[in-house]
User: What shape does this take?
Amino acid sequence: MVSQRESRQTPQPKDFERIRNFKGADILSARQFDRENLSVVFEKTETMEGICKKIRQERKFADHLSGYRLATLFYDPSTRTRLSFETAMQNLGGLVISESNTQFSSAIKGELLEDTVRVVELFNTDIIVLRHKEVGSSRIAADAVGIPVINGGDGEGEHPTQALLDLYTIQKECKKIDGITVTMLGDLKYGRTVHSLAYLLSLYDVKINFVSPSFLRMPSDLVEELRRKGVKINEFTSLDEVTEDYDVLYFTRVQKERIKEKEIPAIAANLQGFDQLYALTPEIVAKSRAVIMHPLPRVREIPLEIDNFPQAAYFRQVQNGLYVRMALLGLVLGKI
Amino acid sequence: MVSQRESRQTPQPKDFERIRNFKGADILSARQFDRENLSVVFEKTETMEGICKKIRQERKFADHLSGYRLATLFYDPSTRTRLSFETAMQNLGGLVISESNTQFSSAIKGELLEDTVRVVELFNTDIIVLRHKEVGSSRIAADAVGIPVINGGDGEGEHPTQALLDLYTIQKECKKIDGITVTMLGDLKYGRTVHSLAYLLSLYDVKINFVSPSFLRMPSDLVEELRRKGVKINEFTSLDEVTEDYDVLYFTRVQKERIKEKEIPAIAANLQGFDQLYALTPEIVAKSRAVIMHPLPRVREIPLEIDNFPQAAYFRQVQNGLYVRMALLGLVLGKI
Amino acid sequence: MVSQRESRQTPQPKDFERIRNFKGADILSARQFDRENLSVVFEKTETMEGICKKIRQERKFADHLSGYRLATLFYDPSTRTRLSFETAMQNLGGLVISESNTQFSSAIKGELLEDTVRVVELFNTDIIVLRHKEVGSSRIAADAVGIPVINGGDGEGEHPTQALLDLYTIQKECKKIDGITVTMLGDLKYGRTVHSLAYLLSLYDVKINFVSPSFLRMPSDLVEELRRKGVKINEFTSLDEVTEDYDVLYFTRVQKERIKEKEIPAIAANLQGFDQLYALTPEIVAKSRAVIMHPLPRVREIPLEIDNFPQAAYFRQVQNGLYVRMALLGLVLGKI
Assistant: This one.
């Protein structure tokens, strides 16, 4: 219902207040986090890792969220993110209702997102995870209901739980965040993952290398913001140019569907060579001890033979994602 | 399989027998209800409201339907109705299996609806909620299986649980049904909701105002039937013409997808001005103490600013829907 | 990612080793079974039948798989197979996560199947049931993860749990397998069901009649293999030609969607008369005491009036399928 929405603005970064108390909080943006509340999330994430081990050993799910209900509303499908949240809820003893088929449902009747989430709240639902193509949609949903909303990805906007699991993985793999150098490689323009992760890294004392073709560079306003916050940044167009060693090599997938949606033929034409130029080879891996990360799904950036290298951390990222999401569900429901 | 179905007739109103004993009954039509069995449903619905409060306080789901399984088969998708039934089953301790993607499944292999529901019955399923585009489909399903079938909406046919929750809401908001005046406004021709609700209201001593453009009037045979049953009916083309006060103002959404399916270009052309003519304004609300109801999803009929008026009951309808569905599941399974 | 897959071959029959120990085994092909391990499955299947009866009597699900999680990944939708597995898991006390909408999900981002199943394994998942259009996909999945994978149908490849439930039904209906005669009728070329069932029957002392139009004959290499194994085979083009009595009449649906995908216009043109020629009539049923089986969904092969004949076993097949799947889940998880 466009007319009712016209007066609304896309939420600006400054709109996101730091989380001081997780109970009842919405998780909408990486910008709600600081070192203090990140340390709370990461401490609980470790606890969740222990709970998962115990579940497998004792074959008994936990009961922290017993009597609670999660609704996963995925207007923009993502098997990985949806099943990760649903598993997290099951592991803590809660129930799930789910809609992942919304292109055929209320959405086609022109229903307002606000109405959908209000209705779901009325089904004795305690928390909503929303994924939606429209930037700012999770904020709109959060404002409409009294229960916590977690942003499971809002188009080109944010995907804060991905950023949190990325940072948690870096801390776990490198044993620290302060003092490390992170090299981010690939499509840095449209990849919301690298934007949010770069923001979180700026809360620490880090160096970042951005490696991308000129037409897919990290947005300049974000680069400036990161520099103002004290991050030492270098930009390159090829990984060969990065001569100093780094601790983390973060790959991104080319967001072809987003680039296509935006009808950027010049970029689309340039993408042909991109796959080769910004792909990982066993030679690159052999040269460096850097932890290799990727938000998945990968397409051609990382060949299968890299998976067996010990520094290939992208599947450990997935596992950490489950723990982070368990921690967030428990925290915002005030039960861990 | 058209040839096997040719001999079948669309179920006629007279085909629906009154429910005398809920245990094992199919819920297919509003026409199965009379004042007596409605009072049973409404009494149990109040009990369910108490159970829901207790669930939230004690964080423990009920166990009335523990060991039972519900199958939701939604050939025609509806997030609201499906999640409402699934929540109802979870609240009472039962399990759910679900298919809401059936346009891509057995349906495309030309499978008979009878076979699908028989198969689902054989999966130790205790009750089926079916939503289907075809009028009369829930009757066909109910005839094919030995377990109860609840009609979750059969195209232009019926949506009896919506009618029940509407009537329950009226009783709860007005503290009575006998003696009230209900104004129904909008698309009264294609809106199955208003047809079923008008039928249920005819079991009581009520006045009804029908307000619609001439090309979307309440079907004349239904108007005649209601009059024969003693309902005092007035028809209008604009809400301004309704001079006497009323207790309930029931809005409907224009069923654009149904009108489009039926290829009624004359009506489609007329719909442009419809949105403005049959929309609610704060001025209309301010003039009357009438309870405002809407089956949702709304499109443009009710602006968001009306939501905060105390008489705006459409979200309370949703909540009552959960209670009504819990009551029906419990009643037909003989467990409450 | 075609380039990474090019070096791979479609798994060949000889690749499938016999299952000696069910715990941890993948169920990918009927060719993993011999008389010995089939007798284990069938013994456990009978146990499961008893458990299902107890569940209905006592209204309490079993707890053999309590603390375990099944993921159903249905890239190629099938309501029947998916709900059968999910019900089986629920009956034994386990939890389910599910993706049946994968045409809109990771698949469209070009994700490798290997990556998807690895990710799902990392969600504390204990077993995966995969359905996929691509032949050999379940083998690819099984090789990628450390947890058991059950093939829920891989295109024209195999659907081993269907073959197992078919054989179990034959044993139950005929009280034996050795010594019986089975007549298979319909599309014997593209029907994976009849291929797998014929293979399993070849482990016993049986006669098989194949009845099909010449352009939909059982593949000659399979016929030869069966003959080498000692099966007495006769081929016909019409059921009228089968003069000797038989114990089982196994019907198949014409796989029109597969024939269409393969663009075989000559066959498609011939199919017009097929429906009449290879359909069952009450006269055929009246002439024989043979058990009538069909993998469902039927289209026009079996008229509804046959359903009430006592020898119509196709709905009992469905019910046996639930028991067989419960047995397999319990066996490969080492809990029954």
Q: What stands out?
A: Chain B touches chain C at residues 1, 3-4, 66-69, 71, 95, 97, 99, 101-102, 104-106, 108-112, 114-116, 118-120, 122-125 (CB under 8 Å).
